[in-house]
C-alpha cells in the first residue's frame, strides 16, 4: 500500500518521480546500474562530470577507504561531450527518468561552451554545474571558493541556457551561505549541497600519502553531519531549492536532510556499498513517511500548497505535485 504513495514533484524546474537521485561520479552514466535494479524508479540521476574534451583524470592510487567513508581523487575523468552526446545520451534518455548532466571546465569560457551545448541537446533535463571538485587544479573548487568567480561563472552560464541550472557547492569555504546567495542572485534555479570534503590519508609504513594526488575528497556517512549543517545554512540564506548530498545511507537520513531544508537528495558513495541502494531507499522512504504521518495530505487526497500545512517557506520548498505531505517536512526543523 505505502509503495503506491506518489512522491513526484518539480524541483528547480526538473520533474522528479520522487526526491531520490543518484549523485554525480558515483553512478557512471547510469547504464552500468541497470543490471542491479530498474533505474527508471529513480527520481533522476546526475551523470559523471563532463567536459568539452575527454579527460584522463589523476594517476592511481586515486581512491582509498576511510572510517565511514572514502577518499577519492579521480580528477574528473570523463569521455568528453561528443562521445557522451553520441553514445551515452541516446540510451539514457530512453530510461524514463530525469537526466541531469554534471559539467565543468578549466575556464569560464569552457563552462559557458558546455552550458550552450547542453542547452541544445535533447534528452538533458537539467544542468548541474560543478564548481566544487577538490581534485583538479583549474575550474572545480578553485572557482567555487571565490565569490567573484562564482558570480561570473553562474551568470555567464545562465546567459546561455534556459534549462534548469543547478550549482554544486563546495563545503571548503568559511560561509557556504554567501555562495548560495551569489548563485541565487545570478539566476541559478537550485543548488546542490555538498561536494566532497577535502581530506588526506598517510600510509604509516611507507610514510607517504596514500593517494597519488596527495589529497582527495572525503565522502560517505562520515560527512553527513557536515552536509546537514550546510543544507541548514543555505536554507536560511536562499529561496531556491536545495539538493541535499552527503553520506545518505538510509531513509531516515533523507528525512533529516529534508528537515534541514533539502527539497530532494542525491545518493553518492553508498551506491558503491550497495549498487541497488537507491531503489531500496525509495521504498523505505514511503514506509517511513507513512510512519511519520508525513503522507497524510496525499492519502486523504487533499491538495495543500507545497509545505503549506506546516507553514513551510513556500518558495524554498520549490516543489509542486501530489505528495504535499512530505513537502511539509522541507525545512521544518527551522520552525520548531
Ligand atoms: C568517486 C567519486 C566521484 C565523484 N565525481 C563527481 C563528479 O564528477 N562531479 C561532482 O560534482 N561530484 C562528484 N562526486 C561527489 C558526489 O557527487 C557527492 O557530492 C559526494 O560524494 C558526497 O556525497 P556522498 O557522501 O553520498 O558520496 C564524486 C564522488 C565520488 C565518491
TrEMBL record:
<keyword id="KW-0560">Oxidoreductase</keyword>
<dbReference type="GO" id="GO:0005737">
    <property type="term" value="C:cytoplasm"/>
</dbReference>
<dbReference type="InterPro" id="IPR005720">
    <property type="entry name" value="Dihydroorotate_DH_cat"/>
</dbReference>
<keyword id="KW-0665">Pyrimidine biosynthesis</keyword>
<dbReference type="InterPro" id="IPR001295">
    <property type="entry name" value="Dihydroorotate_DH_CS"/>
</dbReference>
<protein>
    <submittedName>
        <fullName>Dihydroorotate dehydrogenase (NAD(+)), catalytic subunit</fullName>
        <ecNumber>1.3.1.14</ecNumber>
    </submittedName>
</protein>
<keyword id="KW-0285">Flavoprotein</keyword>
<comment type="pathway">
    <text>Pyrimidine metabolism; UMP biosynthesis via de novo pathway.</text>
</comment>
<keyword id="KW-0963">Cytoplasm</keyword>
<dbReference type="GO" id="GO:0044205">
    <property type="term" value="P:'de novo' UMP biosynthetic process"/>
</dbReference>
<comment type="similarity">
    <text>Belongs to the dihydroorotate dehydrogenase family. Type 1 subfamily.</text>
</comment>
<dbReference type="InterPro" id="IPR013785">
    <property type="entry name" value="Aldolase_TIM"/>
</dbReference>
<dbReference type="Pfam" id="PF01180">
    <property type="entry name" value="DHO_dh"/>
</dbReference>
<dbReference type="GO" id="GO:0004589">
    <property type="term" value="F:dihydroorotate dehydrogenase (NAD+) activity"/>
</dbReference>
<dbReference type="InterPro" id="IPR050074">
    <property type="entry name" value="DHO_dehydrogenase"/>
</dbReference>
<dbReference type="InterPro" id="IPR033888">
    <property type="entry name" value="DHOD_1B"/>
</dbReference>
<dbReference type="GO" id="GO:0006207">
    <property type="term" value="P:'de novo' pyrimidine nucleobase biosynthetic process"/>
</dbReference>
<feature type="domain" description="Dihydroorotate dehydrogenase catalytic">
    <location>
        <begin position="7"/>
        <end position="288"/>
    </location>
</feature>
<dbReference type="InterPro" id="IPR012135">
    <property type="entry name" value="Dihydroorotate_DH_1_2"/>
</dbReference>
<dbReference type="InterPro" id="IPR049622">
    <property type="entry name" value="Dihydroorotate_DH_I"/>
</dbReference>
<dbReference type="InterPro" id="IPR024920">
    <property type="entry name" value="Dihydroorotate_DH_1"/>
</dbReference>
<keyword id="KW-0288">FMN</keyword>
Amino acid at each position: 500500500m505505502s509503495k503506491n504513495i506518489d512522491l513526484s514533484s518539480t524541483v528547480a524546474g526538473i520533474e522528479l518521480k520522487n526526491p531520490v537521485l543518484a549523485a554525480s561520479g558515483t553512478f557512471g552514466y547510469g547504464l552500468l546500474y541497470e543490471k542491479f535494479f530498474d533505474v527508471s524508479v529513480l527520481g533522476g540521476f546526475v551523470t559523471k562530470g563532463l567536459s568539452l574534451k575527454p579527460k584522463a583524470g589523476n594517476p592511481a592510487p586515486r581512491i582509498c577507504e576511510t572510517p565511514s567513508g572514502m577518499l577519492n581523487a579521480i580528477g574528473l575523468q570523463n569521455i568528453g561531450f561528443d562521445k557522451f552526446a553520441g553514445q551515452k545520451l541516446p540510451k539514457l534518455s530512453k530510461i524514463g527518468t530525469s537526466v541531469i548532466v554534471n559539467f565543468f571546465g578549466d575556464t569560464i569560457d569552457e563552462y559557458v561552451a558546455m552550458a550552450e551545448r547542453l542547452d541544445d541537446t535533447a534528452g538533458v533535463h537539467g544542468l548541474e554545474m560543478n564548481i566544487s571538485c577538490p581534485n583538479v587544479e583549474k575550474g572545480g573548487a578553485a572557482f567555487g571558493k571565490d565569490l567573484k568567480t562564482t558570480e561570473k561563472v553562474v551568470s555567464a552560464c545562465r546567459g546561455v541556457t534556459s534549462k534548469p541550472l543547478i550549482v554544486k557547492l563546495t563545503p571548503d569555504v568559511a560561509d557556504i551561505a554567501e555562495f548560495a546567495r551569489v548563485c541565487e542572485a545570478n539566476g541559478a534555479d537550485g543548488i546542490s549541497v555538498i561536494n566532497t570534503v577535502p581530506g588526506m590519508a598517510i600510509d604509516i609504513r611507507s610514510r607517504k600519502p596514500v593517494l597519488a594526488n596527495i589529497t582527495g575528497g572525503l565522502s560517505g556517512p562520515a560527512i553527513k553531519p557536515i552536509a546537514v549543517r550546510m543544507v541548514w545554512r543555505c536554507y536560511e540564506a536562499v529561496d531556491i531549492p536545495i539538493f541535499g548530498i552527503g553520506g545518505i545511507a538510509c531513509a531516515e537520513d533523507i528525512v533529516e536532510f529534508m528537515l534541514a531544508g533539502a527539497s530532494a537528495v542525491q545518493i553518492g558513495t553508498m551506491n558503491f556499498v550497495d549498487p541497488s541502494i537507491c531503489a531500496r531507499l525509495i521504498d523505505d522512504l514511503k514506509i517511513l513517511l507513512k510512519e511519520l504521518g508525513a503522507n497524510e495530505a496525499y492519502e486523504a487526497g487533499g491538495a495543500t500548497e507545497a509545505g503549506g500545512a506546516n507553514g513551510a517557506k513556500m518558495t524554498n520548498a520549490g516543489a509542486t505535485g501530489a505528495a504535499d505531505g512530505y513537502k511539509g517536512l522541507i525545512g521544518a526543523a527551522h520552525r520548531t
